[in-house]
Amino acid sequence: VAMACPIVAIHEKRNEIVTYGGGVHLSKENLNHEEYGTIYGLVAEKKGDAWGEIIPGMFVKSLSQEHGIVAVPTSEISSWRVGDYVLILPVHSCMTANLMKEYLTTGSDLISRL
Asked: What H or E segment, with its residue span, contains residue 107?
């Protein structure tokens, strides 16, 4: 499961992106990543209608109710713009899927949750 979250702000000096994708979208489940510490999800590149490889150094580092803070490497920050979508692979995909009413498949089919 990947959650497409729009970027609502970029803080280049802090190497952070703010997304409209917080605890009510991703859940507040986290894990202790050996390299990044506490994370709520990883970021993947967009590949056609799906997601591709995980982008090294990009991860969801904190969540509020509606927003997420994504850490971004210095080498990547200038390639993002407000309005772009970040593909987040949440720590706990079952809880994330349960929070949504509909799902869009990589084949562009819309599935409603029962």
From this structure: none
pLDDT for position 12: 97
For 20-48, the pLDDT digits (tens) are 999 999 989 999 999 999 999 999 998 88
Q: What is the CATH number of the domain that holds 57?
A: 2.40.37.20
d(CA 44, CA 52): 6
Residue 61: closest CA among 76, 73, 78: 73
Task: Using CA atoms of 27, 98, 33, 105 in order, give the dihedral in degrees to the nearest 10.
Answer: -120
What pLDDT digit, counting tens, does each position of 10-25 carry?
Answer: 999 999 999 999 999 9
Domain that holds residue 103: 3-112
Residue-wise DSSP of 35-51: TTEEESEEEEEEETTEE
Q: Which helix (H) or strand (E) holds 13?
A: none
Count up the domains in the chain and report the number.
1
